[in-house]
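Design job #97: recover the sequence.
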């Protein structure tokens, strides 16, 4: 029986899937650059350099940038390309208010649902952040802080909540890092983390919710004081 060639429709679907995969890879790369500070607020996304760096054409770069614009991380200017969004303090405050409410729910759900292993993992991250804070290692602390909050939302076990929370948090990375680098703020931030894991270990949903809300409020206070 002769080998049947793919139809034009099938080839188009394959092409679309490949493009989507490349776009996802590029989007993650740009997000990582924003989170690490390599791309700061107001910086232009250089499509040519990024395409060469990732060994892709400029098509996936543009698609990823459009997606990130919809997510609130980038803005575009006619004939100028895409830029990292410069968020006002009022916009950051609004997002922090929403983040506080979602974080409280995350804390309560973890206390009610998460296994002991997940809570132990969260506690270990807090222990490692204690070391980083003691050494005033801002970069290490920032990486561990991101991992801690990612682990928190995963432990809540609610995909819909995770999507909403991540959408908010992804827009706040630049402001959050600014708040963490103030003198003494690493230690203060991790004291708040310790209160969270203590409440989770005790399976106290109300205390976990309150500790999460207080941590977000503390983060906002550090950020607003640094401006």
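Job complete. Output follows.
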């Amino acid at each position: 029986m002769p080998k049947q060639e793919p139809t034009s429709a099938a080839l188009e679907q394959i092409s679309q899937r490949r493009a989507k995969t490349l776009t996802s890879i590029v989007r993650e790369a740009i997000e990582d650059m924003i989170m690490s500070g390599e791309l700061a607020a107001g910086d232009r996304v250089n499509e040519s350099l990024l395409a060469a760096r990732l060994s892709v054409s400029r098509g996936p770069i543009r698609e990823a940038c459009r997606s990130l614009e919809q997510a609130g991380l980038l803005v575009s200017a006619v004939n100028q390309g895409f830029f990292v969004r410069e968020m006002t303090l009022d916009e950051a405050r609004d997002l922090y208010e929403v983040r506080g409410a979602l974080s409280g729910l995350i804390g309560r759900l973890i206390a009610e649902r998460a296994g002991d292993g997940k809570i132990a993992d969260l506690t270990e991250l807090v222990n490692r952040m204690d070391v980083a804070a003691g050494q005033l290692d801002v970069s290490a602390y920032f990486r561990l802080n991101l991992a801690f909050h990612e682990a928190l939302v995963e432990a809540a076990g609610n995909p819909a909540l995770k999507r909403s929370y991540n959408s908010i948090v992804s827009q706040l990375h630049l402001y959050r890092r600014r708040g963490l680098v103030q003198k003494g703020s690493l230690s203060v931030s991790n004291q708040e983390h310790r209160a969270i894991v203590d409440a989770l270990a005790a399976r106290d949903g109300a205390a976990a919710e309150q500790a999460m809300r207080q941590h977000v409020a503390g983060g906002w206070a550090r950020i607003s004081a640094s401006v």
